[in-house]
Amino acid sequence: MPSTELRQTVLSTAKSVVVKIGTQLLTTEDGDRPSLDAGFIRRIAKQVALLRKQGRRVTLVSSGAVGAGCVSLGIEKRPSDLAELQAVAAIGQRQLMTEWHKAFSKYKMAVGQVVLTRTDFDDRVRFLNIRNCVNKLHELGGIPVLNENDTVAVDELRFGDNDLLAAMTANALRADALLLLTAVDGLLDEKGNVIDLIDDMAAYEGLSRAGSSKWGKGGMSTKLEAAKRVMDAGEVAVIASGRQEDVITRVLAGERLGTVCMPAVRKMDSRQRWIALTARPSGTIGIDDGATKAICERGKSLLASGVTQITGRFDRGDVLLVRSETGKELARGLTNYSAEELRLIMGKRSSQFRKVLGNAAYDEVIHRDNLVVLDPA
Ligand code: GLU
């Protein structure tokens, strides 16, 4: 589908949208010291209120806690000490929410603060609860404003950047679109022109530069990774400049702004999104060519006879990454066996391993219903 048509059919009809706003946009260097840009925040609120009138739901993912906290404490650069970062974020998060509250009160809209860590998305029940909570906030007429819970996040609990948090939120909510607002006009080609449309992310990886702003995390490469997660789920993502006037309402009217990342043909359901694109795998298994063909080409379950390698510690019900003999990522799925059990039965047929494990054994290591092939032929 060409970009103009896609923008019209997908973006102008999108009912539920996640909008991520980076620190660089939320802070201003005007005046003696940089601080939260109340004018910018008001302009976002105005657009969100307008969209609400059109019956559309906007969920905001707002960075800026660390930046705001540093500024008010006179700290010159993003702290590298974990406790300091957490403490600064605790102060900044409150300031950030005050600004959002002030901006939305003009429209009599209450803001709801939702702060999350990476582990909230690893757990299936919590993943579903995030969706329920955010949806309820909308039903109650509120505006959910999400951020990473920087105050408790230590490395293994971290998203690292809000681009990823926004993509996972969009997938959890089954939002129709993700809009990543940044300080540049979109993904730029070598000549500096905005790329209008991306359908295969792999072709553009070389164009993204790493690097983030003074207070925030993430850069164009994390935006592309985030966009890919949403594309893979079957929804659209747009990377656009938050400095363009009325960018949210214009993008959602189908105007040609920013870079549109095309949705994959397959639309994943909620369970598939969680298995394939959200939960972090607890272990990896390698499988032989026969099993690869069976799961990738013939739509079969994964059997123990095809398993050749096991790494990691996992229990029944955990998400596993499945790799081919050459190491290619093939699929993700929920295992019926723990790592210890699987070590006993790998390479064996079920008639052989029933003796080892007793009659409670499952034929499948990963049942087809719990398996998502990542790149179906
Ligand atoms: N959660 C961080 C903050 O509020 C921002 C992370 C990011 O820049 O992506 O400061």
- Fraction of helical residues: 25-40%
Q: What's the total helix number?
A: 14
Annotated CATH homologous superfamily of the largest domain: Acetylglutamate kinase-like
Radius of gyration: 22 Å
> Which structural class fits the helix and strand makeup?
alpha/beta
Report on the structure:
- The structure is a single chain.
- It contains 14 helices and 17 strands.
- The mean pLDDT is 91.
- It is α/β, with parallel strands linked by helices.
- Strand 2 (27-28) and strand 3 form a beta hairpin.
- The chain folds into 2 domains: 3-272, Acetylglutamate kinase-like (Carbamate kinase); 281-373, Archaeosine Trna-guanine Transglycosylase, Chain: A, domain 4 (Roll).
- It has helices spanning 3-11, 23-26, 38-53, 65-73, 82-105, 118-122, 124-139, 162-173, 220-233, 247-251, 270-278, 289-296, 339-345, 350-357; strands at residues 16-21, 27-28, 35-36, 57-62, 111-116, 143-148, 177-182, 197-198, 236-241, 259-261, 283-287, 302-303, 307-312, 319-323, 329-334, 364-366, 371-373.
- Residues 22-23, 63-67, 147-148, 150, 161-162, 216-218 line the site of glutamic acid.
Outline of the structure:
39% of the residues lie in helices and 20% in strands. It is of the alpha/beta class and 377 residues long.
